[in-house]
UniProtKB/TrEMBL annotation:
<keyword id="KW-1015">Disulfide bond</keyword>
<feature type="site" description="Interaction with tRNA">
    <location>
        <position position="126"/>
    </location>
</feature>
<feature type="active site" description="Cysteine persulfide intermediate">
    <location>
        <position position="193"/>
    </location>
</feature>
<keyword id="KW-0547">Nucleotide-binding</keyword>
<feature type="domain" description="tRNA-specific 2-thiouridylase MnmA-like C-terminal">
    <location>
        <begin position="276"/>
        <end position="354"/>
    </location>
</feature>
<comment type="function">
    <text>Catalyzes the 2-thiolation of uridine at the wobble position (U34) of tRNA, leading to the formation of s(2)U34.</text>
</comment>
<dbReference type="GO" id="GO:0103016">
    <property type="term" value="F:tRNA-uridine 2-sulfurtransferase activity"/>
</dbReference>
<keyword id="KW-0963">Cytoplasm</keyword>
<keyword id="KW-0808">Transferase</keyword>
<protein>
    <recommendedName>
        <fullName>tRNA-specific 2-thiouridylase MnmA</fullName>
        <ecNumber>2.8.1.13</ecNumber>
    </recommendedName>
</protein>
<dbReference type="InterPro" id="IPR023382">
    <property type="entry name" value="MnmA-like_central_sf"/>
</dbReference>
<feature type="active site" description="Nucleophile">
    <location>
        <position position="101"/>
    </location>
</feature>
<keyword id="KW-0819">tRNA processing</keyword>
<feature type="region of interest" description="Interaction with tRNA">
    <location>
        <begin position="143"/>
        <end position="145"/>
    </location>
</feature>
<feature type="site" description="Interaction with tRNA">
    <location>
        <position position="334"/>
    </location>
</feature>
<feature type="domain" description="tRNA-specific 2-thiouridylase MnmA-like central">
    <location>
        <begin position="202"/>
        <end position="268"/>
    </location>
</feature>
<dbReference type="InterPro" id="IPR014729">
    <property type="entry name" value="Rossmann-like_a/b/a_fold"/>
</dbReference>
Amino acid sequence: MRVLAAMSGGVDSAVAAARSVEAGHDVVGVHLALSETPAALRAGSRGCCSREDAADARRAADVLDIPFYVWDFAARFTADVVDDFVSAYAEGRTPNPCLRCNEKIKFAALLDRALALGFDAVCTGHYARLTSGELRRAIDADKDQSYVLSVLTQEQLQHAMFPIGDTPKPAVRAEAAERGLRVADKPDSHDICFIPSGDTRAFLGERLGARPGAIVDDATGMELARHDGVHGFTVGQRKGLGVAAPAADGRPRYVLGIEPVSGTVRVGPADALDVRSIEAERPVWSAGRPPADRFACVAQVRAHGGLAAAVVESGPDGLRVELDEPLRGVAPGQAVALYRPDDEGDVVLGSATITQTI
């Protein structure tokens, strides 16, 4: 097969490309230039968009003796991922930019171009597995990325390859060292790639400006403090609330809800975060369709953790997910990924975007 290997400059994508070459595929490496100002990102950035990363990807391609190109997707990334991220926070939602990047960039824009150029598949260093067309969790549970890939359609999965999903991360690093890849010991990327400082509130503040509002007690409606914008908060947040007076029961307060129109942030006790029912829109089914109009599954609301057995009702307007036990920190804008409830519980059925919780 002709395979386009997406090479971020990290160890995972380098080993994935190497395995594709070893499997006998005709492999071409490509690094996606996603930042409009890559020179502004510091060396050793926790993201994956710096010039340093592009150079690391090129060196890995040289070791593997494969053609290598840099494709400029910065404008598309800004429009589909960064701008979407900013607008979601302005509307009181909590987006997942990695999930959106997979959906809009790596398996839409990149895959479309790859197919147009005659490639059969796109290979990435994601920790996930494909078995008989089914998307499954990775062997390494701590690194599993099936959640952020749950937005992929059946057609996209047919042209995807995840060569390292069957290998624990330490073994991937050891293999990279054996292959002479200099990125073997390169630290993993963390946080949000387009916010290398890690200060999401400052990043959003620069783009949205001050939008003052009130932090109120959910039970009494009493104003507890003022804030500069709802973009500085997310459901389940405990730190950085700026509330000086202790709660009546002396326990910590958490963000329970965000009302962007009025600028109100509601806070209250931890047990008020319990969610038993989720409504979601824009479902994507990994098999092309839901298993049934009503079916049992395991629901996951975060990239790592946040799992519960559930029953899903699928309708023309979206999904309703009834959880067998409550989950906390579930926010509109996040994705709910649905897994088959068998013994292993590792097959992705689909996902949808959360709109409301009860």
